[in-house]
Amino acid sequence: MESPIRKKMLQAFSESDGEFVSGQALADFLGCTRTAVWKHIEELRREGFELEAVRRKGYRILHAPDKVTENEIRYGLNTKNLGQTIYYQESIDSTQKKAHQLAYDNCPEGTLVIAEEQTSGRGRMTRSWHSPKYSGIWMSIILRPNLPPQQAPQFTLLAAVAVVQALEEVCGLNPEIKWPNDILINGKKVTGILTELQAESDKINSIIIGIGMNVNSKQEDFPEELQKIATSVAIEKGKIVSRSSIIQKILEKLELYYHLYMEKGFGPIKLLWEGYAISIGREIIARTITGTIEGKAIGITNDGVLKIEDSSGRIHEIYSADIEI
Ligand code: BTN
């Protein structure tokens, strides 16, 4: 957690809009001595901030590191609940695991768990998730909708729509969704979503939406087995992108569609999702834990379940699988 004095100092610099802030003004604003100001400035430098210091003028920030700490995310975040409580750790085993603990301990709805790196990131179907330092978004969000557990898979699709729209609006990219929740750009995976539940038999206690996005990784940064199937926002865009702007937009879209869902049900979300889906109408292979089904993906049910028609005309409903197109 960030110290309150650090928070105020960054606030003073944000408000100065790139202009110098004098040491005395900072000391007055923070209620500390000029020596203490200097110590905090040195600490910011150690964290990767590039600061200019000029005699009689003061300090200004020339370049802020692209970090995803509480400050970077909060500054400019336009939500009521989502991301208003932030749990940040530079390095963590898994944000998903931490989010489960916090949800169990009754953290506020909308709590965001985020880290610069995960040492044991988890993917779907008990796979691991490659989450190296500073190059991606590794985050989990806790929601507490008052709904029966059967409706939880719809949240996976809702989250996928939020991520796609954030990438469209912030980065000008055109991602697609491969059921249930892989986000692809030019056929390669840029984001994975893992939706997990804490529930009783008739009621959801918490939904934990884990989002892993490759943002600033270069192709050679991926392990060999991922080189052909994974991509990043920077690879597709041809330049480095600010992770905090993408995070803010995802949170805003998630909040928007969460409210829409609670008001109007899954119908409007389903329509949006279908507009981005690449698997529907195509011949696919679905590998589930109980076997493989080949056929045409004919749509999703109102619960977000995938329907496949095999060559004998039989319709299969798939709850969880790996899809090959
Ligand atoms: C997938 O297999 O496609 C889903 C990947 C989900 C990865 C994210 S990264 C943040 C959160 N924490 C985890 O350990 N996993 C999810």
What's the SSE blueprint?
Elements: H1 4-16, H2 23-30, H3 34-46, E1 50-54, E2 58-63, H4 70-74, E3 86-92, H5 95-104, E4 112-118, E5 136-143, H6 153-171, E6 176-178, E7 182-185, E8 188-199, E9 204-214, H7 224-227, H8 233-237, H9 243-264, H10 267-276, E10 283-287, E11 292-300, E12 306-309, E13 315-318, E14 322-324
Parallel strand pairs: 3-4
Antiparallel strand pairs: 1-2, 4-5, 5-9, 6-7, 7-8, 8-9, 10-11, 10-14, 11-12, 12-13
The structure holds biotin.
The site of biotin has 21 residues, from helix 5, strand 5, strand 8 and strand 9.
Could you provide a short overview of the structure?
This protein has 325 residues and is an alpha+beta fold. Helices cover 34% and strands 27% of the residues. A hairpin with a 4-residue loop joins strand 10 (283-287) and strand 11.
Please explain how this structure is put together.
Helix content is 34%, strand content 27%. With 325 residues, it is an alpha+beta fold. The protein folds into 3 domains: 4-63, Arc Repressor Mutant, subunit A (Orthogonal Bundle); 70-276, BirA Bifunctional Protein, domain 2 (2-Layer Sandwich); 283-324, SH3 type barrels (Roll). It is elongated and about 80 Å long. It has helices at residues 4-16, 23-30, 34-46, 70-74, 95-104, 153-171, 224-227, 233-237, 243-264, 267-276, and strands at 50-54, 58-63, 86-92, 112-118, 136-143, 176-178, 182-185, 188-199, 204-214, 283-287, 292-300, 306-309, 315-318, 322-324. The longest helix has 22 residues, at 243-264. Helix 2 packs across helix 3 (34-46). The strands form 3 sheets. The chain has a 7-stranded mixed sheet with strand order 3-4-5-9-8-7-6, with helices on both faces. It has a 5-stranded antiparallel sheet with strand order 13-12-11-10-14, with no helix packed on it. It has a two-stranded antiparallel ribbon with strand order 1-2. It has 10 helices and 14 strands. The mean pLDDT is 93. The structure holds biotin. Biotin binds at residues 94-96, 118, 121-124, 127, 129, 131, 138-140, 182, 192-194, 210-212.
